[in-house]
Design brief:
single chain, 198 residues, alpha/beta, Rossmann fold, six-stranded parallel β-sheet
């Protein structure tokens, strides 16, 4: 088993929107996100995206349309920085949805840790050695519940309120994904001093 890095999508890799990201033309990578993910790729650290996507349950997009949006993000990462994720997991469910088959509680939905636990089983990831990067308290809680190290990035619309969170505290706070990845690589070097870094 090996350490991996879990990433939220909106507010971490791409710009978030209060009205949900529902159109391909609205997808914009955050500055430095592709280079940060490429640095993980170059160091053979698995990159796993874990994202809540309640727009499906709310009837704003279909699951097929969500998959097209995710494919667009993957295309932009490849085009911009020759970067890639190893796997993406998403939760389309929400208890306040309007589409019956998606209107439910789910242990996949952050702050529950179901997506991280599933990735650990399927990809052979060691959760206590892994890192969860997000811009919301739900991301940090999901990481904590899975036993991961947690990093808050200040690139999401709600991330600036972290001082008022009473239920969780990230292990590290980074300006953006680039700074988060640099911290991760420093931790990996400290843990495995003989490991060659790219």
């Amino acid at each position: 088993m090996k350490a991996g890095v879990f990433l939220d999508r909106d507010g971490v890799i791409i710009e978030d929107s209060p009205n949900y990201v529902t159109r391909r033309e609205d997808i914009r990578l955050l500055p430095g996100a592709a280079a940060a993910i490429r640095a993980l790729n170059e160091n053979d650290i698995p990159v796993v995206v874990v994202t809540n996507q309640s727009a499906v349950a709310r009837g704003m997009i279909t699951e097929a349309e969500l998959q097209c949006l995710n494919q667009r993000v993957a295309e932009l990462l490849a085009q911009t920085g020759d970067a890639r994720w190893d796997r993406i997991y998403y939760c389309p469910y929400h208890p306040d949805g309007v589409i019956p088959e998606y209107t439910m509680e789910s242990d996949l939905r952050k702050p529950q840790s179901g997506m991280l636990l599933r990735a650990s089983r399927e990809l052979g990831l060691d959760l206590p050695s892994s890192f969860m990067i997000g811009d919301k308290s739900s991301d940090i809680l999901a990481g904590e519940r899975a036993g991961c190290h947690t990093i808050l990035v200040l690139t999401g619309p709600d991330s600036g309120s972290w001082q008022r969170w009473s239920d969780c505290r990230p292990d590290f706070i980074a300006r953006d994904l680039g700074e988060a990845v640099r911290w991760i690589l420093s931790q990996v070097r400290a843990r495995y001093p003989g490991r060659r870094q790219q």
